[in-house]
């Protein structure tokens, strides 16, 4: 055996929690020093076994410092516990147990922490102030009531309940059990208190929803103990637990000092109450920002429908080298890409996820499928779905919803059958996607069969959304009276959406009598909705009832109800361009209109006949309105801004009209372009003069 130069005395750092039982300076023999030094240098398994054998042979394994190093360097928690159980006699002090308890608790081996404590108790090893805090932490995190109660009793018996780390751990334990009164009792009995004890008790009250208790304790807290964590707890309580943003802002403004956590909590609070302007104002005034600051504001924009602002903020974020988008960032941004049809940016984000090795879990896969599906790229959505290692109900439901939006009923049923075969239970969202697919393809019998048997076969009772799908399904198929009776006999109050669906079906099938009945009821339900008046006016127009159509338009003017403007967007070179009907604000306005008129001439375009009926006295305004619809402008811009053969993807906020639908079909054939239009109802894939909806929408 190689000899180590003798070192008669080894000095160890004092234990800050020690009560004096652990000596600060241990006198070691030469062999003992060599053992400690060898164990401290991360020995291999073979060397560890030899060192253990030497400690047993020399009897040094009974020395606290040697035993502590052996326990901490054994290859697994189980082997460390096995060594403890094999001790012929207990150690003289709790020092080895304290080391192991602390290590197991910090490493989240909480069950091993409890087992170590059990061995300590069985050997009647005395405890010191360092023994119980790690044990109580593991008991709290595992909800082990017996161990926590035993620790409390032992602390009381040994007079350690006033020791601050133990008192703090006990308070945290009882709050976790939902016993705030016991926690407060322990707090009140502490003669000496520090800021950690105060803050732990305040946070405990907040987590138990005892907000008055938290506020009372905060007000009682001595100013010397009030630190930034105390103030942040109160801001977070008012913002995210109580929803009282005004009170949160008052506390925020009173703070003597703020950190990034304070600002982030306040931004999240404004996000919860949909106050994006105040959130942005705070964000702009922050002295420093971290990734949580950016994530909070991006999520605020997305949750409140400000998708363009969310993407703009994400682009700004990329200009700061010190802040890197993380998993939360990209998960929040992907829905914004989907809603705006920002496919290029969505693909860039997907590539960023791969480059940064961000784990693509279920939530991420679901977000990617939804993004690709909403952007009209069903191929990439399929690829993400197929590559998902794990699939759950939400992932399947998202894929079904995406396929349904694209009118791919056969694939919807294929994915649904795959879901059932995998033993994954469908939910209400799954069935909405399934029924929508039936409605888009006119599969009346199939849709009714699933609607009538979903409770019996799947244990799902039909909800309002499912009734809405069926009304749409049978209404489009021309069974208007059946749809009307279904609405009247629903077990719940029908929503305006259901009535609107029936009214649209009346327009498609020309049933003015039922339309008038439904329209009157809709106007009573939603007197400020422009869509109902416009739809009724158009129904009258198709029947050449000019006076009735005018009366609807005049009624809108009297009520000062503005028609919702049609808006279409198209992505070109990673940027979203928006167009409104008759829009002339684009910098390339002249080129766009020249292209539009050239396309119309080449297609020999004439306005759709049912929309060309209401012409009075050569009113040129009405004659030119149709050709200036927003989706036609978006198409013209796409043609002049992209290379030949490139797919043009257009997002429309309203349902595409018959005239634009025909225009897109003709243009796709004339220019050899695939045109994908997502309106408020579904996707239309225009290829070689035909549409994926088969003119059934």
UniProtKB/TrEMBL annotation:
InterPro entries: DYW_dom (IPR032867), E2_motif (IPR046849), E_motif (IPR046848), PPR_At4g14850-like_plant (IPR046960), PPR_rpt (IPR002885), TPR-like_helical_dom_sf (IPR011990). PPR repeats lie at residues 227-262, 290-324, 392-426. Signal peptide: none annotated. Gene3D superfamilies: Tetratricopeptide repeat domain. Coiled coil: none annotated. Residues 605-697 form the DYW domain. Keywords: Repeat. This is DYW domain-containing protein. It comes from Dendrobium thyrsiflorum (Pinecone-like raceme dendrobium).
